[in-house]
Amino acid sequence: MLFTFDKDVLDEDEQTLSSYGIEEESRLEVEYSNMKIRDIGSLGLRFMDVSNSQGLKRREWSSTAPRWRRTRCGLCLEGKCTNSRCEAYNQIVIIPIGYKKFDVLLDSDDTTTVCPICKNYVQPSSCAFNNCWWRFEGRKLEANSNGRPPKKCSSEWTQVDDAYHYFEELKSGTVTWMQLILEAVKNKPV
Question: b/e per residue, 82-118, with b = 16+ CB within 10 A?
Answer without folding.
Answer: ebeebebbeeebbbebebeebebbebbeeeebbbbbb
